[in-house]
Each structure stands twice: as C-alpha cells, then as structure tokens.
Design brief:
Length: 254
C-alpha cells in the first residue's frame, strides 16, 4: 500500500474526464485533493461526492494572476502541494491547419502550453522548498506521432513532452519526480469538446473500438506515483489495443 495520507494533490481540469478520475482515485487512497477547473457546478458536485478531503477552486489555467492567487491562498490543510497533475487541456477543430479557426489554435496554445507553465511556475517553488514532490504532465500520443488534424494540438503536446524532460533534468538532485503520461484514446468529454459540444461525435469517433476508461487511466497514473520514491517514470505512453499510429502517407499521381 502506498501511504498518501500526507499528500496534497493539485489537479487542473478536475471537472470532467481524467481529472475527475484522478481526484476520485487519490481521495479513495486517503490523500487530500485540490480540484480545479472553470465549471463551478461540476466542482460543487465533486465536493458533494468526495467530501471534506476535497478542496475546490474555480480556476482558468490561462489566467496567470488567478493561478498565482489560487496556489497562494489555499487553506493550510491544502497548501503544501506534493503532487501536481497538469491535466487541463483540449483540442478544438481537428481539421486542416489552413481551414481551422485561428482563435481555436490560440486557445489550445494558451491552455495546453501556457496553462502548464503558469501552474508549474506557481507550485514548484513550494516543492523545492520542502524538497518533495511529483509533477505529472498529461501529454498525448498526438505529441509523439503525427496525426492529420493535429498540427496545433499535437505541437502543444510535444511541448508538454519536452518540458517534462527538461524540467526533470533541471531538478536533478531534488527529491521531485517529473513524469509525462501520453495517452491515446481515453473515454472522456475530449471528443465532444473538440466537436464543439456535439454529443454524437464521441460515438462516431470510437465506433467499433474498445477505448481506455478514465478510471483505467487513473490507475496507470497512480501506479507511476506508487513506485518507490527513488524510481521516476519519465514517460508513459498508453494506447488502446485497437489504436495504432499512422503509416507513412503516400500521394500518387493518377
Ligand atoms: P475532458 O474534456 O473530459 O476534460 C478536460 C478538462 O480540462 C476539463 O475538466 C476542463 O474543465 C479542463 N479545462 C479545459 N480548459 C481549461 C482551462 N482554460 N482552465 C482550466 N481547466 C480547463 O478531456 P480529458 O479528460 O480527456 O482531458 C484531460 C487531458 O488529457 C487533456 O490535457 C487532454 O489534452 C489529454 N488527452 C486526452 C485524450 C483522450 O483521448 N481523452 C488523449 C490524449 C490526451 P472546465 O471546462 O470546467 O474548465
């Protein structure tokens, strides 16, 4: 058994999908959790479900000042963050670069890149001071393999991949682990968000394939956390068995 009773786990994007699953998993193991996200009503119902060991804070990771303020004003029982899960993120559009909306691209960059930087910059000094911590960044297989329609989303996740490795290198000598988890298809609201709220999009996208559940993915993250403190899982890439990467594409003149 991993003892998490002294842990405070700060999760971005805990109002849905994987973030909510991470919150449930760490609470069930006995940790205290700070759940954040933009949708207050979702946070309220998570608080009702998970009880006093969950602290909630409405937070947009794109808002640099709000991130600083949120981390600096946590109640004493939740102030000493030992696990940070940079999970908030999204894909919008999913079409060809030249046809998609520039505003959507900038939102992905603001959320998936700047959001990770804002939150890590606010949380890391406390971890360094206490010489204790584990930072999990949620990347994507889209940051490793090229997927048509992913030119901006995939690039933001490539940033997350390299940021993780470089941060880990810089933290050598501290007792702070840094891991990037790079999932393929996980059953969350991700596809619905990408399709601008079209609730039928998920079923069409995953038709006929078995995908990873958010709870299964939370098990994987928790496994990485439960490794002995001297063991750092650098990169964990996971796909459903029914998913693979693209072949090299060929255009033929007819
Ligand atoms: P969901 O859409 O289910 O959840 C995304 C979460 O991110 C929500 O809680 C949302 O909360 C939050 N979020 C989005 N924008 C912001 C913002 N500006 N500030 C704060 N929170 C924000 O998707 P997933 O659970 O799948 O996504 C989790 C992570 O996994 C993301 O980084 C995603 O890119 C990554 N991923 C997902 C894959 C999948 O197949 N599901 C595959 C590969 C990677 P709210 O709207 O309330 O703010």
């Amino acid at each position: 058994m991993t003892d998490v009773s002294n842990d405070v786990v700060f999760i971005t994007g805990a109002t849905a999908g994987m973030g909510a699953a991470f919150a449930r998993r760490f609470i069930s193991e006995g940790a205290r959790v700070v759940a954040t996200g933009r949708r207050a009503e979702r946070l309220d119902s998570l608080r009702q479900e998970l009880g006093d060991r969950l602290h909630t804070s409405v937070l947009d990771v794109c808002d640099r000042e709000a991130v600083q303020q949120c981390v600096a004003s946590l109640p004493p029982d939740f102030a000493e963050i030992s696990v940070l899960i940079n999970n908030a993120g999204l894909s919008l559009g999913g079409g060809k670069f030249q046809e998609d909306e520039l505003d959507d691209m900038l939102t992905m960059i603001d959320t998936n890149i700047k959001g990770v930087v804002h939150v890590t910059h606010a949380v890391l000094p406390g971890m360094i001071e206490r010489d204790r911590g584990h930072i999990f960044n949620i990347g994507s297989v889209g940051g490793v393999y090229n997927v048509p329609g992913n030119s901006i989303y995939g690039s933001t996740k490539s940033f997350v991949h390299m940021f993780t490795l470089d941060l880990r290198a810089e933290l050598l000598g501290h007792h702070i682990r840094v891991s990037v988890l790079e999932p393929g298809a996980v059953d969350t609201e991700f596809i619905e968000v990408r399709a601008r709220g079209d609730k039928t999009a998920r079923d069409r996208h995953y038709k006929g394939m078995r995908i990873i559940s958010a709870d299964e993915f939370a098990d994987i993250l928790f496994y990485a956390y439960s490794l002995p403190p001297h063991v750092n899982a650098n990169i964990i890439e996971v796909m459903p068995t029914d998913q693979n990467w693209n072949r090299v594409a060929i255009h033929r003149e007819t």
